[in-house]
Amino acid sequence: MSPEEYLKVIERIASSKGWKPNPDREILLELARGLLENREKHGRAYCPCRIVTGDYEIDRRIICPCIYAGDDIAEYGRCFCGLYVSEEVFYGRKEAPVAIPDRHAEFIFSSSR
Q1: Which whole number is the average pLDDT over 93-99?
Q2: How many CB atoms lie within 10 A of CB 7?
Q3: pLDDT of res. 72
Q4: pTM strictly above 0.85
Q5: Tens digits of residue pLDDT in 2-39
Q6: What does the buried/exposed string (b/e) look like for 36-74 if buried means 16 or more CB atoms within 10 Å of the residue's CB?
Q7: Residue 6: count of CB within 10 angstroms of its CB
């Protein structure tokens, strides 16, 4: 599957969640490439902006869309890597921050796991 073809998967996921894909096509294609590379290398479409540890209990949280995406989009208008955005960001009614806190890093480094 090519990154262009994978955009259809991204669009379907976004639609099912009430999100939008990032309106910047270059960013979308780069992230699609990363998802496809992770799928080929690790067997799953892990978030391309995070490190796969090899520990499935940790890594399952970052299978795209990661478990943090909904909260990130609700709070910041975009997910951590910027693949998915809120409708407000997509339509230019809200500006998403360039960077947001990494909830996954907080999980990994917390003592609660």
Answers
A1: 94
A2: 16
A3: 98
A4: yes
A5: 999 999 999 999 999 999 999 999 999 999 999 999 99
A6: bebbeeeeebbbbbbebeeeeeebebbbbbbebbeebbe
A7: 19
Q: Can you give the length of the chain in residues?
A: 113
Identity of the residue numbered 97: P
Token pair, residue 69, equals 């995406």
Q: How far is CA 78 from CA 8, 38, 39, 107, 111, in A?
A: 19, 21, 22, 19, 27
Q: CATH assignment of 3-109, given 3.40.50, 3.30.450, 3.90.460, 3.30.1490? A: 3.90.460
Give the integer Cα–Cα distance in Å for 85 and 102: 16
CA separation for the pair 112, 94 (Å, rounded): 34
